[in-house]
Each structure stands twice: as structure tokens, then as C-alpha cells.
Amino acid sequence: LDDLKRGRLYLNDGTGIFEPAPSQALPSIGSSGGAVAAHDYDGDGDQDLFVGGRVRPNAYPLPPRSYLLENTDGRFEDVTKRAAETLLRPGM
């Protein structure tokens, strides 16, 4: 995806001010997201992310995959294959 369509992450500094996270905080995601939800899926006390796929560029009508991103010290790793493999091949 080009930079205009790429997902962005903003971090709260604790006072209600949001700053862009470093570019390496998110892995490369090859589809546009339709929904994002924060939840501590692994129970380690920090917020992980679910990114629901919306569109795969140049592949309509094939369904896009979704992502489970594990937060480790502010860097999100794609753990979908290990933790929620069915999100890799969604169906209708």
C-alpha cells in the first residue's frame, strides 16, 4: 500500500497528547484495514491489536486476511499464524 493508505499508530503521552509512533512500531500490512480493536489477548498487561482486513489491492473480490498484532514494548509483531491462524484465510 502507498503511504496514504498505510495504517498509522499514535501513542498517548499520558496527558492526552497523541504523537505518531515510530514507523517500525507496526509491521507491514498488505491490505487496508476495516476495523481495529485493542485488547490484551496474551494477558501480559499491555494492549495488543486486532486489525480486520477490508480490501486487498488489485485482488477484489478475494477476502483480505486480518491481523493479530502482539505488543512487545511498544512494537507490534504479527502473531496471526501462531495465535489465530484462521484469520489468514477468511471466508464469506
Explain what this protein looks like in three dimensions.
This protein is mainly β. The protein has one domain (10-88). The chain contains 1 helix and 6 strands; from the N terminus they run ββββββα. Strands 3-4-5-6 form a 4-stranded antiparallel sheet. The protein has a two-stranded antiparallel sheet with strand order 1-2. A hairpin with a 5-residue loop joins β1 and β2 (18-20). The protein is globular and about 45 Å long. The mean pLDDT is 85.
Quick take:
The chain contains 1 helix and 6 strands.
Topology:
Layout: E1 10-12, E2 18-20, E3 32-39, E4 48-55, E5 67-72, E6 75-78, H1 80-83
Antiparallel strand pairs: 1-2, 3-4, 4-5, 5-6
Q: Assembly type of the shown chains?
A: single chain
Number of beta strands: 6
End-to-end distance: 24 Å
Q: What's the rounded overall pLDDT mean?
A: 85
User: How much beta, percentage-wise?
Assistant: 25-35%
Summed up, the domain count is 1
Q: What is the helix content?
A: under 10%
- Gross morphology is globular
The main pleated sheet reads as: 4 strands, antiparallel
Global Rg: 14 Å
The spatial strand order of the largest sheet comes to: 3-4-5-6
Order of helices and strands: EEEEEEH
Q: Structural class of the helix and strand makeup?
A: mainly beta
SS field, number of helical segments: 1
Uncertain stretches: none
